[in-house]
Amino acid sequence: MSAQPKLSTLVVLRDVGHERVCQDAKYGQQEHPNLPRGVKHPCAFFGIPTADAARLLCDDAFKRGIGSYAHVLIEEVSEAIEDAHDPVKLRAELIQVAAVAAAWVEKIDRESEAAAQAA
Hints:
Layout: H1 7-27, H2 42-46, H3 51-63, H4 69-82, H5 87-118
């Protein structure tokens, strides 16, 4: 992983870092549990597809040409929620959630820049 990050990625990560600082300033350090106590089927509890179902939905959407960042993000969030009992797996999944969210923001920024240049 020695590739240099793109400037757009660094801008998004700067913005995420700024938001984190603002959250801590507003709410203080938060210590919420990973899941509500006693939840046995966390995806059902939150009304989202299981990781397997989300993966199938995502794969199917891309095969049909309608795949979106929303599909990918839901899949990653589902995986994170299902792995919330294992801190190592949960951390890895949450990094993937953050990376997908950052990529989505980068795409929004590219579209905004292209629209501004076209105007």
